[in-house]
Write a structure and sequence with these properties.
InterPro entries: Bact_2-comp_sensor_kinase, HATPase_C_sf, HATPase_dom, His_kinase_dom, Sig_transdc_His_kin_internal
Pfam family, one: HATPase_c
Number of strands: 7
Strand content: 15-25%
Oligomer: single chain
Protein name: Histidine kinase
Number of helices: 6
CATH superfamily of the largest domain: Histidine kinase-like ATPase, C-terminal domain
Keywords: Kinase, Transferase, Two-component regulatory system
Shape: globular
CATH architecture of the largest domain: 2-Layer Sandwich
Low-confidence stretches: none
Structural class: alpha+beta
Organism: Candidatus Enterococcus avicola
Length: about 200
Amino acid sequence: LQAQINPHFFYNSLSLINNKAIMIGNQEISEMAQLLSAFYRLSLNNGKNRLSVKQELDLTIAYTQIQLKMHRDSFDFKTDIDTTLYPYEIMNLLIQPFIENAIFHGIDHIEDGRRGVVHLNGYEDDGAIYFEIIDNGAGMSTEQIAAILESQQGQHYGIFNIQQRMNLYYGDKGTIIYQSVLGEGTKITIRLPKIIAK
């Protein structure tokens, strides 16, 4: 997919949209064009498969801000990332798909009127780096989690793909732990080895 997209055309188009929006005083369209540009610039990453934690965080925040606009600010997004993690290297598009799932399969399915909240935490512990994605959404049963982990197609393929990529990059040093309670929410914990970005 990365090879099929002409990034110069894409970025120039978004820049044009941004400039036109500024000219007519439409701040919302300008912000959306800037967020899309930031998200795709980082996610395509000149064809490279790895980013610094800071870049992945910026990508994930841009994606979530786009979703907040699309959801009319109907949920909250909170981050608590230890800045000492910023120089470490991680797989490109590792965190964003879990945020996407937290929104579309978690908080979008809240039925009791609670306001949705997604937390993204990052910290170091015991020689490894950890990321937690926590939502207060619909939650999942043990059977639903198993189905996601085994799904090689359809709406959960992205998570299966991440697991396969993690196995290639990190072997047994990269793990994902799923914890969920129906009607209360889901917590995903990602453990990765410390690799300094080059």
